[in-house]
Amino acid sequence: MTQPTAIDLLANLPAPYGLNTDADKALFDSAMQQADLWHQAHNPTYAQLCTAQSHPVIPVGLFKTLDLATPTGDQGQWLNSSGTGDKGKTQVFFDATSMARIQQGMVQIFIENGLVSPVPARFLLLSPDPSTGDHAGYATAFLKFTACAPVQECVFAVQANGQLDTKLAWDTLQRWANEPVPVYIFGLTVFFEHLCLSQPESFRLKVPVRGLTGGGWKGMTQRLDRQQIISGLKQCLQAPLVDIRDIYGMTEHPLHYISCQEGHFHIPAYSQFTIIDADGQSAKADRPGLIQLENPFFASLPSHRLLTQDLGSWGEHCPCGQSRRFLRYIGRATTPEGTCAAEAI
């Protein structure tokens, strides 16, 4: 029987949102070291980077201009990032080993945020059906998130050309209104705004509505801010619960993170994050800087130390009661042109 690796043990932590113990920190460090050794042994380009710096932090834009993939010899699936500005799109190979780790981690993230249910549910996806064309990775991600509950029905409300069919979305919600089946809505932030701006007369949805919105609120919405969108949907749907959370992630990073009810991202023990200030140093609490993410789950991409193009800050003592320090997402450090949300406008 093969002994589990440090990365496997990290992916199977029983309480990734618990107190940040010394044992968890040591396991994370061991898993990151294992990721370094793997990519050095199987990726000559990454090995060359390590000759200049022992633990290189790679800017996300570099993955859009260079082929930095690590061959795994495994079966899997290719996904595209959105691309940003005049940069290209990153093609990321999700091999079977990486996917198993990612799925294990995402299950725990969904459980922590109250999104997992054994009860069959209906899903309204404000995204295209991935089978209809070469869509950005967000389309596949939202479809995979439907694993949080048995799927009774799934409706894709974005056409193959990337445009949201607001009539189909609202007709679907009204059709579901009187039936006792929980409803989930997943989609890009900009599509949630379009949904809110096109809302019909208020009607009563008899079941709770839970939602995830990705793509960032800052700089993407054209007319409404986050609170206006959520308030508008609550007023229109008249449901016993409308709980819409933000999701933060990118194709080049294995995991997506879900905000608490205060809008903060509590990063589980699978990962670590740092806010990098203008001097290239770790920023103090509440001070803005670039978000740097660390996670060792990818066998197919040496992005385990990733400098993003996103601005954020960090804090502690969240009113939600979660003990782990949290990440605040502020917005893009670059222009939003070329992102999933910008392409949807």
What does this molecule look like?
The chain has a domain of 148 residues. It is α/β, with parallel strands linked by helices. β6, α8 and β7 form a beta-alpha-beta unit. 30% of the residues lie in helices and 22% in strands. The protein has ten helices and 14 strands. Strands 1, 10, 11, 12, 13 and 14 form a six-stranded mixed sheet that branches. The longest helix is centred in the first third of the chain and has 21 residues. It comes from Budvicia aquatica.
Order of helical and strand elements = HHHEHEEHEHEHEHEHEEEEEEEH
- The N- to C-terminal Cα distance equals 52 Å
Any idea what the shape is?
globular
The share of residues in extended strands comes to 15-25%
For the secondary structure, the number of strands is 14
Helix content: 25-40%
Mean pLDDT across every amino acid position: 90
Catalogue the unreliable spans.
Answer: 341-345
How many helices? Answer: 10
Gyration radius (Cα, Å) is 20 Å
Structural class estimated from helices and strands: alpha/beta
Largest sheet, strands/sense/barrel: 6 strands, mixed
Describe the SSE topology:
Layout: H1 6-11, H2 22-42, H3 44-52, E1 58-59, H4 60-65, E2 76-80, E3 91-95, H5 96-112, E4 121-126, H6 137-145, E5 151-156, H7 166-176, E6 183-188, H8 189-197, E7 209-214, H9 226-237, E8 242-248, E9 257-258, E10 265-266, E11 272-276, E12 289-294, E13 305-315, E14 326-332, H10 340-344
Parallel strand pairs: 1-13, 4-5, 4-6, 6-7, 7-8
Antiparallel strand pairs: 2-3, 8-9, 10-14, 11-12, 12-13, 13-14
